[in-house]
Amino acid sequence: xxxxxxxxxxxxxxxxxxxxxxxxxxxxxxxxxxxxxxxxxxxxxxxxxxxxxxxxxxxxxxxxxxxxxxxx
Length: 72
Fold this sequence. Notes:
The chain is α+β, with helices and mostly antiparallel strands. The protein contains three helices and three strands. It has helices spanning 6-16, 22-29, 34-43, and strands spanning 20-21, 47-54, 61-69. The protein has a three-stranded antiparallel sheet. The longest helix is centred in the first third of the chain and has 11 residues, at 6-16. The protein is globular, with a radius of gyration of 12 Å.
């Protein structure tokens, strides 16, 4: 059985949903270096935007990463 990489997990999630946060990546996939993986994917040619937000209750700031388009 082929091993699923963190890159594959992130790309599948971004393709299927409206984005992924660092907290979601850690909890759902166990990815601890999420922002480094996003930087790697950007270097590979994937257009990924970071949308900064603030949690409505706690006021904590976070970034939701969304896939703009697939790599060429």
